[in-house]
Every structure is written in C-alpha cells, then in structure tokens.
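Posting for a labmate who doesn't have an account.
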Amino acid sequence: MDLPRFEVFVNKMNILSSSLSRQTCFKIFDRVGQGHDLSRSQFLQAIVQIIFAKYLRPKAKNLIERMIKRASNSANKLKLPSDYIVSDLLSGIRQFFEILIPKFVQKRTWQEFRLIVQKKRTSQILIKEMAIIRRVYASWSEIVSNKRFFSISHALGLIELVREVTKKHPLGRVLVISDKDVSTCWGLSKITVKDMDRDFERTQHMVFVEFLEFLCRVAHTC
C-alpha cells in the first residue's frame, strides 16, 4: 500500500479525531514502512500503532479522561461513545475492527465470495475450460524458485489484452473493469501467507488455484 492509498484508508475509516491527527498517521506510515510502501504485515503493524496513538498514548488518554469527566458532569448525563471505554490495546483493536470498519464495508467479503466460487455450477465451468485456463496461466506467469507464479503486473497485462480483444471483436462483449478493480480482485484472491517476513516473495505472486479465483472475481466485477 502506497501513501496515497493509505491516506484514502485513513479518511474512509473516519478514524481521525482530536487525539489522532492526519500528520500522526503519516508519521506512522513512514516509521513502519521505512520509506517504502507497506506490505500486508506492515499495514497491520501501522493499524496497531494508530490504535495506540488514538486511544492509549498519554496525550490521547488525558484528552479522553477530560471528555469523560465533562460528560459525567453534564446535567443531561450524556451517553459516552464507545471510543471512551477503550482501556487497553486489545479493546482498542476490537473497537477498530468491530465498530469502525464495519460501518464502511459494503461489498461482499472475500470469504463469502469463495462460497460462490465453490458452488457446483461455477466449478463445472472451470473444470470444462481447465485446459484453456492452464494454457493462459502458463503463458502469462513466470518461473520463480522452480515454481510458476502470476504477479499483479501479469494480471494487469492480461486484462488489458482482453479489453483490447473484446473491443475489436464484433460479436463479443467489451470487458469493462478498471485497473484498480483488477488489483483488488488480485489481492482478494490471494491465500494468506503464514510468515510474510520470511516468505514475502510469495505475497507478490499468485499460484494456479488463486488464479482461478481471480478469474471468477474479475467476471463477477464486470
């Protein structure tokens, strides 16, 4: 994740407050990424540091304590927002993932979509065209450490070629999907890597079973 996308994430999640500024989030991005884009594990590290900065550092805790005191002294006995009851990192993480993020999740989750892919009719289509799909995968992938992998740049190149072909074909339907959506389909189709620090290169490539899910996601998005 690069800095512009990280900024979109910060804005969309609505996590900025009087105890957490945009500048603090950018400093966390630079500190965790060490001048580079964030990997998936680094992104999770950044989230933990954002949670600490928002709720648990001395400045944030003092501010929240003043807000609680002001609310308790109010004649109307205002109900405290859930943000105010965060007392440790665990409750802060729970607050972030269970309350903040679900407000903005509108698309089908990757796990729910996988149930669609596993349905009998979808599987039958994939099995019927398996020979062609394998040839496409072999043509567009590369050998890395004696294994064949398919990177996000290969995915973008393949879909761009399909766009051009469908534009020229008089009887075909034009493939309409943005590069951003292609990248999203690629990322959601990935299987979680157990140890991304030791096997980071594996996160940059897609094996064949992931490629099958990628094709289904592209078709679903279109």
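Reply:
Got it, the structure tokens are right above this. Residues 78-82 have pLDDT under 50 and may be disordered.
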